[in-house]
Amino acid sequence: MDAERRLDAVLVIRADLVEDVMAHAREEHPHEACGIIAGPEGAERPERFIRMVNAAKPSGDEAAEAEERALRSVVLSGDHAEYQGEQRSSTTYYTFDRKERLRVNDEMDDRDEWPVVIYHSHTRSPAYPSQVDIDYASGPLSDPRIHYVIVSTREGAPPTVGEYEFRSFRIVDGEVTEEDVEVVESYMFSHTGADDVPDRA
């Protein structure tokens, strides 16, 4: 069995981090929010919440918008360029700002961290990966350990974690596997490791 298939099909995450993700999603609505929750390298323990910029969101700066269009053209092609008959925008998909992502990657390297969770919100659809999400998470640079969290801020979203539609997935070589989400107050007694401590960056 491949290594990625042996990974535990569960995301263990602190309640305060769930609240951080949902607060970010609500603040950005109707635009999609996105970000990373970093943790110690080699540990399945999301700890440090990092809000990111959705580069698909218009900035008002002509040069920045030109770069955003270039980024969108890389991610979106063919049928993916539209969402239910309309041109895709920051209300229907996300992409990280390239410079910010490089800065955050360097920061994680310096702190001996890795992106345990990559999250984003859906504002008009269920919390399930779209084909754009799957393409974005796949490829030679993808990491099968990453938990892809999607939350929905659409009206009437059915709750899956507390009062929120908050779901987690592994995406490996284009294959989507949903996993359970276990919310804990601290990692002290969860199965992420006996030496874990409940801390915040």
UniProtKB/TrEMBL annotation:
SMART domains reported in the protein's UniProt record: JAB_MPN
CDD domains tied to this protein: MPN_like
Chain ranges of the MPN domain: 11-170
Superkingdom of source: Bacteria
Hydrolase is among the record's keywords: yes
Keywords, comma-separated and alphabetical: Hydrolase, Metal-binding, Metalloprotease, Protease, Zinc
PANTHER family: CYSO-CYSTEINE PEPTIDASE (PTHR34858:SF1)
Protein name per Swiss-Prot or TrEMBL: M67 family metallopeptidase
Species assigned in the record: Pseudonocardia zijingensis
